[in-house]
Automatic annotation (TrEMBL):
A biological process from GO: cellular response to amino acid stimulus
Residue numbers spanned by region Disordered: 454-477, 560-604
Protein's UniProt keywords contain Aminoacyl-tRNA synthetase: no
Pfam family of the protein (one): WD40
Compositional bias of kind Polar residues: 560-572
Keywords: Repeat
GO CC terms of this entry: cytoplasm; TORC1 complex
Compositionally biased intervals (Low complexity): 583-593
Similarity field: Belongs to the WD repeat RAPTOR family.
Name by which UniProt lists this protein: Regulatory associated protein of MTOR complex 1
UniProt-listed InterPro entries: ARM-like, ARM-type_fold, HEAT, Raptor, WD40/YVTN_repeat-like_dom_sf, WD40_repeat_dom_sf, WD40_rpt
Region forming the signal peptide: none
């Protein structure tokens, strides 16, 4: 018990009995415990520093905070316990504490304590007998030196400095304070992890107290240290505060009024440009919720130009922030208060800014965009009804062009039957997902009678509509005859509605806003992402119903019937997208509650996603990154009932928008705060299953590379040993090896089949969900070294090329012969290069889900092949006119085309840029001329002539090989010198059956394997002789 209450006395006795006579027992150490200038006070000070250091280095962080920082009495008791354990262990006694502590009696810092006690006790005879001055211990100076050495020697892959708690104690000493602050500032400058360690020691109250010091020499260091602490700690705390405030004001009028009085809008606006993306996201959400259905807050935002300040977030690099900004602007224009000319002008400006996001790379943002624009439709219903009626009249007056002869490339993709993507795992290749869901086309508007003379109204039942988050959509199904606007009708509207007649309708400028927003909604209704399309279809059909059945506005036939007055002011009743057919659903707002007539079971739309990061339920968020993170959002429950003077159909109208035209983005974002933030992520936990699986994959990858390289180094004399042959469900159009697993993806026109080429088994086959009239033209494996994703590109000369993970819009040109969409993927940077039947090369950042750059090709021909090198920032494009063009994407658009080769006279089948610093360009045309270029030279270095009539070609990235397929039913393999290695004309095991015309081929990225697809549906894989393998 004495060692727990008086550690200095007993500790001194333990070391002093053999050094001094009985008259000099250590209890005679002069001084006071609370005076650090005396021997006893200094010894107690050193004891505190050493025990704190031992505890901080040995105990878990939360236990250290609980025992040594929360209560002074408890901290003193446990410091004494550490010394008691050391002394009692020497007498074969084991002290016990609660909570139980790990052993500390062998820690190296106890040697420093022994030295400090020895130095102190050695001075006692002269101090007591002769009265000499006490010489202070060099302990703290030496520990600061050790800390300085740790800083000097580097910090990479090293344990934290054990002297950190001692540095904290040194701040109490005026003699060493300046030096300690300097070293502490250098430590905090190492990064946020250093600040977190310092805060765990307990630096915060010490620095806060020193800030009140009058010593001028300390102020620069203290300000620097304080800034480092705030830079790490403040953003997180402010984010949590924004989240809490957003919850307080969510559909709670009292909370909105209190926060408005507390000047919350101005405070939030000051944080919009904060570098912390999560803070920007929640500040925008908080703003969107405070003025939602609260006119006073909206006008406060108008006075502070809140909507204009939010515009900057619409181009934010983080998709979640862009989505939050769209949400905030959507609720800004969705306020149901009476509109004035001023507020109408503001609404129009906001709408036109939102319309610029129509081609945003994130489906989540586009989905929130539909919801935001639906608020505008709600407020200006009569104007949109007029525009909708005029569009439908124009659609009726023009014949639908034949798909075979599209108009100028403006044709919009329309969903094709029998199915669009639904997601399911591939049996033995579970990281690849594809989307497939049953979906058919509506009957055309020509089957509906919209003429006034008929006097009949179109039956329109919400029972056949499914919510936007439903995986099974009845949009366009044969049973859904009641839909006012089908996909075909909307597609036709976009293509045949002439501006001339619409301009005759538009007598004043503000009407043009409604026309443009209507066109934006038409565009979004044709979005290849199902949830975006579903939402836009609901908005459009609601207005179509109001225009033709319910409201029945006067039809405008020509300009003579127009008045030049402003449109009627919007209703102040909070009009909602219409749900026809009586009362709103009585059950929940899930998809089943909205399918009263046609019940469909929901199908999962979960897509493997890899941004740890960073987004919402559009139903799904499909991003090509490594980590899988579910991003499904549930629909909100329908809002509170609102009483109006309208008929029952208006009540249904209100319920329809509250139940269906929402995304759940805010609720999904809030789940971030429900997750444990102090827990180490599984991918960083060395013992976690995820970490072990990843390590296994990396070891497997290294083994594959090594074994494949050994075979290639032996030399390849022939490549005709058929190791796989099977009949594909469709004619192969694109084939792609997985780089590390025995899996091969084979695409036909609109489906994908996975094969195990080692076992000869089919793993899976599913529909890709192409837009109508398109075909799969390219495939790429993303993150092939880890959790792989398969990217597919579709398109032809008359359609917008699309990507299944999201939407990538490229303006389309019409050529006689289209290449479809061509892509190239940079794994190192996460950039995706895309082009095709267009005059640009568009670069997408898949992490930010944004377009990075549009590089003009400077040609009137389509791009047939792309190849890039991330280390040199070069892009090589082969074109249909035979030219090879080299671009440096680091340069300005007017100067980025650094080289053009025009030596080919025909369509370029393949242009390949070797991936090393001195890599050359290899290109082949359909005429069979193979040319090698040095990107620095204006002419080719070497020309080879091989067979003509090429239909496919690929180049092995590791071996000095290239293979070409011919329409003459054979495959030829050549080495880099143009020497023929062998031809493949017949299948093995089929009595010499001749191969069909070659439709596609591809080399394995590592193994000397060649996959060949032919028009007779067969897919085969060839390799070197078995004895070499």
């Amino acid at each position: 018990m004495q060692c727990w209450q008086s550690p200095g006395t007993l500790g001194g006795k333990e070391f002093g009995t053999s050094l001094f006579p009985p008259s000099f027992f250590p209890h005679r150490i002069p001084g006071r415990l609370n005076d650090r200038r005396t021997p006893l006070g200094e010894l107690n000070w050193i004891f505190t520093a050493i025990t704190d250091t031992i505890a901080w280095n040995v105990l878990p962080r939360d236990l250290f905070q609980k025992l040594f920082r929360q209560d002074l009495l408890v901290a003193s008791l446990f410091r004494n316990f550490l010394l008691a354990e050391r002394i009692m262990r020497s007498y074969n006694c084991t002290p016990v504490s609660s909570p139980r502590l790990p052993p500390t009696y062998m820690h190296a810092m106890w040697q420093a304590w022994d030295l400090a006690v020895d130095i102190c006790l050695s001075q006692l005879p002269t101090i007591i007998e002769e009265g000499t001055a006490f010489r202070h211990s060099p302990f703290f100076a030496e520990q600061l030196t050790a800390f300085q050495v740790w800083l000097t020697m580097g910090v990479e892959n090293r344990n934290p400095p054990e002297q950190l708690p001692i540095v904290l104690q040194v701040l109490l000493s005026q003699v060493h304070r300046l030096r300690a602050l300097d070293l502490l500032g250098r430590f905090l400058d190492l990064g946020p992890w250093a600040v977190s360690l310092a805060l765990s020691v307990g630096i915060f109250p010490y620095v806060l107290k020193l800030l009140q010091s009058s010593a001028r020499e300390l102020r620069p260091l203290l300000v620097f240290i304080w800034a480092k602490i705030l830079a790490v700690d403040s953003a997180e705390h402010r984010t949590m505060t924004a989240f809490i405030l957003a919850v307080i004001v969510n559909n709670y009028n009292t909370g909105q009024e209190a926060c408005l009085q507390g000047n919350l809008i101005a405070i939030c606006l000051e944080q919009l440009n904060d570098p912390h993306p999560l803070l920007r996201q929640w500040v925008a959400i908080c703003l969107g919720r405070i003025w939602q259905n609260f006119d006073s807050a909206r006008w406060c935002g108008v006075r502070d130009s809140a909507h204009e300040k939010l515009y900057s977030l619409l181009s934010d690099p983080i998709p979640e922030v862009r989505c939050a900004a769209v949400f905030a602007l959507g609720t800004f224009v969705g306020n149901s208060a009476e509109r004035t000319d001023h507020s109408t002008t503001i609404d129009h400006n906001v709408a036109m800014m939102l319309a610029q996001l129509i081609n945003d790379g994130s489906p989540m943002v586009r989905k929130e965009l539909v919801v935001a624009l639906s608020h505008l439709v709600v407020q200006y219903e009569s104007n949109f009804c007029t525009v909708a009626l005029q569009f439908m009249e124009e659609e009726k007056n023009y014949p639908l062009p034949s798909p075979a002869a599209p108009e100028g490339g403006s044709l919009t993709p329309v969903r094709d039957g029998p199915c669009t993507p639904r997601l399911r795992s591939v049996s033995s290749y579970g990281n690849i997902r594809a989307v497939t869901t049953a979906r058919n086309l509506n009957k055309s508007l020509q089957n509906l009678s919209l003429n006034e003379e008929s006097g009949s109204s179109v039956a329109f039942s919400p029972g056949n509509l499914s919510t936007s988050s439903s995986a099974s959509s009845t949009l366009g199904s044969p049973e859904n005859e009641e839909y006012i606007l089908s996909f075909e009708t909307i597609d036709k509207m976009r293509r045949v509605s002439s501006y001339s007649s619409l301009n005759s309708l538009i007598g004043v400028s503000f009407n043009s806003v409604y026309t443009q927003i209507w066109r934006v909604l038409l565009h979004l209704a044709a979005d290849p992402y199902p949830d975006v399309s579903d939402l836009a279809m609901k908005v459009l059909n609601s207005i179509a119903y109001k225009a033709t059945v319910n409201a029945r506005p006067q039809r405008i036939l020509d300009t003579s019937s127009l008045t030049q007055s402003a449109p009627a002011s919007p209703t102040n009743k909070g009009m909602h997208i219409h749900q026809v057919g009586g009362s709103p659903p009585t059950t929940s707002t899930s998809s089943s509650s909205l399918t009263n007539d046609v019940t469909k079971q929901p199908v999962s739309r979960d897509i493997t996603s890899v941004r740890p990061a960073n987004v919402g339920n559009m139903g799904v968020q499909y991003t090509p990154h490594s980590h899988q993170f579910p991003r499904t959002r549930k629909m909100f429950d329908k809002g509170p009932e609102q009483t109006t003077d309208d008929a029952d159909d208006t009540v249904g109208h209100k319920s329809f928008i509250s139940a269906t035209v929402q995304t759940g983005f805010c609720d999904w974002s809030a789940k971030y705060f429900a997750q444990p933030v102090m827990k180490i992520p599984e991918e960083h936990d060395l013992e976690s299953q995820i970490r072990k699986e990843r390590e296994w994959r990396f070891l497997r990858n290294a083994r594959v590379r090594k074994q494949a390289q050994k075979i290639i180094q032996k030399g390849i004399s022939r490549l005709d040993d058929q190791i796989f042959l099977n009949r594909n469900p469709g004619v192969p159009s694109v084939v792609k090896f997985h780089p590390f697993t025995p899996c091969i993806a084979v695409a036909d026109k609109d489906s994908i089949c996975f094969w195990d080429w080692e076992k000869g088994e089919k793993l899976d086959y599913f529909h890709n969900g192409n837009p109508r009239y398109t075909r799969i033209t390219a495939m790429e494996y993303l993150n092939g070294q880890d959790c792989s994703l398969l990217l597919t590109a579709t398109g032809n000369s008359a359609h917008l090329p699309l990507l299944t993970w999201g939407v990538i819009y490229i303006p389309c040109l019409c050529f006689l012969l289209g290449a479809g969409m061509v892509v190239d993927w940079e794994q190192e940077t996460g950039l995706l290069m895309t082009s095709g039947d267009v005059r640009i090369i568009r670069i997408w950042d898949t992490d930010r889900e944004m377009k990075v750059q549009d590089i003009p090709t400077g040609a009137d021909s389509c791009v047939t092949s792309l190849s890039c090198d991330s280390h040199r920032s070069l892009i090589v494009a082969g074109l249909g006119d035979g030219s090879i063009r080299v671009f440096d994407r680091r340069m300005a658009l007017s100067e980025c085309r650094v080289m053009t080769y025009r030596e080919h006279t025909a369509w370029v089948v393949k242009a390949y840029l070797q991936k090393h610093p001195e890599g050359n360009i290899m290109s082949v045309s359909v005429n069979g001329d193979v040319r090698f270029f040095d990107p620095r030279m204006p002419e080719s270095m070497k020309v080879l002539q091989i067979v003509k009539g090429l239909t496919a070609l690929d180049i092995h990235p590791q071996a000095n090989l290239f293979a070409c397929g011919s329409m003459n039913q054979f495959t030829a393999i050549y080495n880099g010198n143009g020497e023929l290695i062998n031809n493949i004309k017949y299948y093995d095991g089929f009595m010499g059956q001749r191969v069909g015309a070659i439709s596609c081929l591809a080399f394995h990225p590592h193994w000397p394997h060649l996959a060949v697809g032919s028009n007779d549906y067969y897919i085969s894989v060839y390799s070197v002789e078995k004895r070499i393998r």
